[in-house]
Structure formats: C-alpha cells, structure tokens
Amino acid sequence: MCLExxxxxxxxxxxxxxxxxxxxxxxDANIINIKTDKIIKELKAGKIVIVAGFQGVNAEGNIxxxxxxxxxxxxxxxxxxxxxxxxxxxxxxxxxxxxxPNKLHRSKKTFKKLIKYETISYDKMIKMANxxxxxxxxxxxxxxxxxxxxxxxxxxxGDGREGTMVE
Length: 167
Fold this sequence. Notes:
Elements: H1 2-5, E1 10-13, E2 20-22, E3 31-34, H2 37-44, E4 48-51, E5 55-57, E6 63-65, H3 70-81, E7 86-91, E8 96-97, H4 108-111, E9 116-117, E10 119-120, H5 122-130, H6 138-147, E11 150-155, E12 164-166
Parallel strand pairs: 1-4, 7-11, 10-12
Antiparallel strand pairs: 2-3, 5-6, 8-9, 11-12
Helix pairs in contact: 3-6, 5-6
C-alpha cells in the first residue's frame, strides 16, 4: 500500500470483510448495518483504516453494489456508525455551487464570482441532487440527515479553499 511506503501503518477492508450488510437489491443496494469492531480494533492499534465503498454483502453472503453515489453513501454510513460528527467528501469541486463550475466555460475571474455555499441544509442539498446536481447523491444526503452527520464537500486537489458544510 502507498501509505505503508510512506511509513504509515494501514489496514484495508472490502465491504464483505467488515461486513457492510445490505438489502438484496444487487445493483442499487441500501446499507442496513455496518459492523465496526474490526475498524475500531485497527484504529486503536494506530492504523489508518481504508474501507472500500460502493459495495457490501446481503444476509446470504452475496456481494451487492450500492449504485450511483455508493462510495459517498458508504462514507456517511461509516461516519454515522463510528459516531463521527463530520464526514469529509473529496470531489472535483471545492464545494457546492449554485451552478456547476465544471460545466461553465468561464475565465478564472468569472469563476470566482460563482456563488458557493458555505453551508447548505440537508433538504436543499437533496432537492439539488434530485434536480440534477451531481456533487452528492440524494441517498448519501438522506443518510446524513437521518443520522445527523454533517458532510463537508472539499476539493480532491487540496487547493486550500474551504468546502461546503451540508447540515
């Protein structure tokens, strides 16, 4: 693993190893439960824990996939299961904008004039997702709302800009 090459101790898991238990909807499954024992054990041992998102296992032990937004949904469920207050989601934009910055052909000066939300409610984000915004899937936000987990949308590229807090 790359982290170990950098001198960090890490442990990776797939959904069935944890297990992340889902329903039987194989290509658009919903998470029912995440067992956190193995994760907590490795965290207590000082390791960085990597859990593969987007997939789990049903009650019969068959692998399922979560469909669009499955990795973000897994992250939020993990945050809820571990009683985290915030779940950071890294994506190709540095937050949630009133318009999709990736679809606009504008200069950098104009880009700075786009309206970026510092905070946005769960309900407004769900509405945006249902109307075509692709920054977060509605299943992810509905999960965050149900478990009261704040979600911070940040840039993968680490440009130092603050993200958007969904709460």
